[in-house]
Predict the 3D structure of the following.
Amino acid sequence: MWNFPLFPEQASTTARQVDLIFLVELGVVVFFSVLICALIVFFAIRYRRGAKVNRDNPPIHSTAVEIIWVGIPLVITLGIFVVGTAIFFDIYAPPGDASRIYVVGKQWMWKLKHPEGKREINELHVPVGRPVELWMTSEDVIHSFYVPAFRIKQDVLPGRYTSIWFKPTKPGKYHLFCAEYCGTNHSRMGGWIYVMDPAEYEKWLTDGTQTDGTMAMQGKDLFVKHHCAGCHGVESTVKAPKLEGVYGSRVPITEGNEIQPHFVVADDRYIRSSILLPKSQVVAGYAPVMPSYQGQIGEDDLLTIIEYIKSLGSKGTRETRR
Ligand code: CUA
């Protein structure tokens, strides 16, 4: 059978929106291309050399025509701009009930982690109909997380968190690609997204092959292993900021020779940089004595530790972040 799909499958809510605006733009382009070509051909034939047509007093100015050819494109392009912007905002603002999946790109694989503790490589299992936020970073160079069937693509950068979300609408198996040239095996850096029935997904999530608990529990082990608990633990006598309830709260910072502290939100980015560059933004009233963990904790362990700190209580930044 003739099988030549012009579009990847449409398997997320975003896919519908992106295709809608793409087809509208394509329609506008086709309409005006055909209209202009037809008029060129029509006038070329009608006014060809030797044709007996009236060539007296050709009009050289028409205000009405000018208003039309400025006005119509203006309305069309502004319309596309407004709809495109609305879709853009929607693609980058995950809904409040989205569940997070942590993604670390690495030459040349995708490492994915569920908050429930489950780890995957080059595969991601998600339930159908539930929004999923991907919270991503890279261990080395720039990668790009690309799922054509969901119409999502987002760069994954070293030293920074980026995110994107999707809501799968159809169970199935969809291709995952890296869409940013990242070295020799870039073309092989891909995998599959498995969109499952919710019940099947719950079964998969708790199939018991993994024994080290949720991500927060794994984070607690890392917290002890890296001796964080010695100073930040509940029973610690060292003067270090306590971490209970810190996630999402506003912490006072004094930088340089500032007298009045300013406030920063203790989100994922702040906590990550506090672990790697602890002297850069010290909480007011504390000495800059924490050692740096740069080069000692990998990106996936950092995400796991942050998930633990989040589990100690949060002020719900995920809602206010929007
Ligand atoms: Cu990773 Cu290309």
Summary: Residues 105, 108, 143, 178, 180-182, 186, 189 surround dinuclear copper ion (CB under 6 Å).
